[in-house]
Here is the input.
Amino acid sequence: MIGRGQDIFDYFRFAISIALKAEDKYEKRKAVVGAIGWRRDGAIVHAFNAGDQRHRSPQTHAEFRCCRKMEKYAPEIYVARITRNDGKMALAKPCSTCFAILKNRKIQRVYYTISDFEYGVIDFKREFEKSGIRFL
Ligand SMILES: [Zn+2]
Here is the structure.
């Protein structure tokens, strides 16, 4: 079970575990990307990278697909990537298209893996607050 208050890497591992299950239907790729998001009502949504050799557009990216299941001002999204050969966490920083949709949907914070020991945060909340938007 996954719930609020867990370690950030628990969320990353959970996102990967879901993506790995979904991956069975797809060709084996070098990297696996999964995303989980918290909605404002506390529900959790998730998505995996659904791209393949023919479909590589950003709309197949895990965070893009996950974000579409979230409402505006949803609190958090976690994006995790592992390389298949060694199972290590790798850089999952959203691409420019995903960055734009996440910002447009005003997702408050975006967490992404960098390695097994590091993660990055995009803090849109702080940016929005600076421009006068207040969150409840
Ligand atoms: Zn993307």
